[in-house]
Amino acid sequence: MTATGVGGARKSALEADRDDISGNRALRALARWNRSLGPFPYDAVIAHYQAVGRTAADRRLVRALRAAHERLSGSAGPAGAWSLVAWLPGTFDQEDGDYDSYLGTELLEGVAGVRLDALIVTLIAELLATEAAALERDPGHREQRARTQACLLALSKSGLLAPDVPDAPGGRPERAEGAEFAPYCRERACGALAAVPAAHLRVVELAMLPTTRLHDEHMFIRSIQIFEMLYRQVVGHLTRATRALELDDPELAAAELAEAAGRLEATAALYRVVTTMPKESFAVIREYTSGRSALQSRAYREVELHSAARPRHPHADKIPAVDAPRPTLQDAFVAASGRLPESGLTGVAMQLARLEGAWRGMKRTHWGITLKIIGTVPGTGGTAGSDYLKTMAEVPLFPALSLTAR
Predict the structure, then answer these.
(1) Tens digit of each residue's pLDDT (9 = 90 or more) over 91-113
(2) Could you tell me which of 355, 306, 327 has the C-alpha nearest to residue 247?
(3) What is the DSSP string of 168-212?
(4) What is the pTM of this model?
């Protein structure tokens, strides 16, 4: 195994000192906080978790953090306690955690608020900075160079993935060769990070509590955090498009659908990053994240339910309950078709077809990558793994409009 980078250990794990590895620094800092002698010691706790991974975290520290969460959850707490209460479950969730606590979804969405696109850019740029740093340590690491290149491409697509950020870094990256490539990527990442809100930088740092010491898990967590934020934005577009159709404003509906489809089409760049995951690394990550499957993604499920009514999910007992809106986008389009001339809905129909294609194309890509990395073994959420994803990729987003969408 290489020292760090793709297939190796995380840089923070290799460079941690004895106090961070043992958890003693975090325990001392938490004890001071319990005596109300300062702010919560986020940095000391994070340093321990990034040094050893959640699964090997000091049991004394885990118990103390769980106790702190229980105490704060039962009271109004000090100023700023909301973010601490939202963050703490990720420090003790190995036995009873879920997909959201693994990703820190509540904290990410809560801090970002309406500026989710700025958070998306922050996540992509931080990932590029991390991968570029690993490449600088080992410039000859071909797999690491490939991943860094993929992350650079993802950042160059920020204008499509996060169009609500006016100055999102985009366009074709400059050509950098040899020893100049890693520093160039680091500079691009740092330039993007310099333009994002400080609160976003901090929450991205907090929401990195890997279960293992593997460098590859950092990429894995960041990638699915980005997808979660993208799905949340797509839900917003679908909601606004539905409302526009109810108000007989097909132009606005078409514009919202176009933006949703554009975001999903741009996910090809993100999947290119995910394909750099070594099978061996993912096998280890899967072992420690069993039960925390993307099947549990609320935002993904909301995209489906906002689009059209669905039959009972085949794994309904394993996914969070999500309220289905009424009307759905499909309902609103059918109703508008009875009120408005066909010519007035042409643009909406075109964008519905585009969105259908983008959604199903994204799911087919997910299936193909899963087949490549894990083969035909069962999924972590109790599904049939890649076979389940293949079946789901054929399920239309708008069943009543599927012939038009194709």
Answers:
(1) 998 888 889 999 999 999 999 99
(2) 327
(3) --BSPPPP--GGGHHHHHHHHHHHHHTTS-HHHHHHHHHT---SS
(4) 0.92
